[in-house]
TrEMBL record:
Source species taxonomy: Archaea, Methanobacteriati, Methanobacteriota, Stenosarchaea group, Halobacteria
PANTHER family, A to Z: BIFUNCTIONAL OLIGORIBONUCLEASE AND PAP PHOSPHATASE NRNA (PTHR47618:SF1)
Family matches, as Gene3D superfamilies: inorganic pyrophosphatase (n-terminal core) (3.90.1640.10), NAD(P)-binding Rossmann-like Domain (3.40.50.720)
Protein name: NanoRNase/pAp phosphatase, hydrolyzes c-di-AMP and oligoRNAs
GO molecular function terms noted in the UniProt entry: nucleic acid binding
Annotated GO biological process: potassium ion transport
Amino acid sequence: MVFRLVLGCGSVGQPIVEQLATSDGRLLVIADGPSLVETLRDESVPARLDDPTDPAVLDGLETPDEIFIAGDRTDVNRTALERARERFPVASIVAYLGGNATASDREAFESRADRIVDPTEALAADIVDKTASRSAKHAIDLRAQLSSIDGRLGVFMHDNPDPDAIASAVALVEIAERVGLEADACYFGEISHQENRAMVNLLELELTNFTRDDPLGAYDAFALVDHARPGVNDQLPEELHVDIVIDHHPPRGPVAGEFVDLREEAGATSTIMTEYLERFGFEIGSRIATALLYGIRIDTNDFAREVSAMDFEAASTLFPSVDQTKIDQIEQPTIGGDTLEIIARAIKNRDQRESVAVAGVGRIADRDALPQAADQLLAMDGVSTTLVFGFRDEMVFLSARSRASNVDLGETLRDAFDPIGSAGGHADMAGAQLEIGILGGADDEDELNSIFSVIEEVITDRFFEAIRTRPGTPVGAYDRTSEWLFQPDDGERNDGESA
């Protein structure tokens, strides 16, 4: 049984004693205040009236497991600590420093106590807790986490990153490098949307593209931006130890990390990164400012979707340093012939029921043509919600758009496709990915088209059903046809990749 000894009992000691009295084990308080000792005894706390600094008192005690030096005066606590350490050399000692400690006192405490309670530090921490904003504390904690990393940091975006993820990763790399830490902005998949490529190229953003088989050994620490869990919406190992997570999306599961900043009230992760740059006191250069503002604009649909005061404040901070000419060039890229072909197919193949239009476009070379096609369908008269999908290799990619106030596309796609793949996004903009092993086993184009026509029917029906049943319970168990379709050919578990 644990034996705890308390030597002295002042204003700090009394709350400690009250907590210890409720713990398992034996407790003894030695104090030189008669009224205090009587009060403790009245509360059924074992207490003895004696001098806690008297060696003779200590000599008469059995060896305690834990000792708490808890008087108010520094000189008395120092004497009690010195004699307790001499008498009980192996006991664990926690000592309260008191309010008038000299340099000599601190040295004596540090050399003898296992842990010191410093009133100055405690007061400072209390002041920070009560007066510092959450963002200031986040900045302090982020700097501490970055400073604790020994080696190189890999900052990973989600797969096929959008402008918000790209800008956030580049900003975190900038912060890391300014505090003396080497870092890289990394991603899996492709940057294939014309505007996203234009952003990277025009702003000369340095990014590292990984494939699933590439080793991660170059990095000693890992950060996730604009998503929160390794192996979900990226190709990192699910068991990867993550040091830093910064995201604005609501988490769909437990988030583990040494430093985690999840702010759903922010319209973009770029907003959070702007705040960090400002809190750190770093000058925001034109390249980073332009990327961050563009990231905020895209994720908030030009401040019209899920926007907060934070986003406007970040934009006002960035605006003086933004290169507006580069923004204009990014927003007006040329559209390739393949993208125009996909848009034409979507218009031709659409299945429109009331204000909802769904279109399968078959094989695609560029998955980023899908959201552009979804946008074009949304511009048609009488259409307020769209879904466009196509396949490449063994993956079917889906992109949805809506301007209907009663539709939450992120939840709708999760209801419809999470059981057979992965999905997510915003109320008016969302996506999904479905792994279909049977596509990889098809021998010719006719067979592929035949399989895709069945897939098209399943996806269309599931989406319309999910639209019909929201709000309400999610779509129920899928039928035997879809269960057969959405299994990899080799029989392994279909993990899928998050949208």
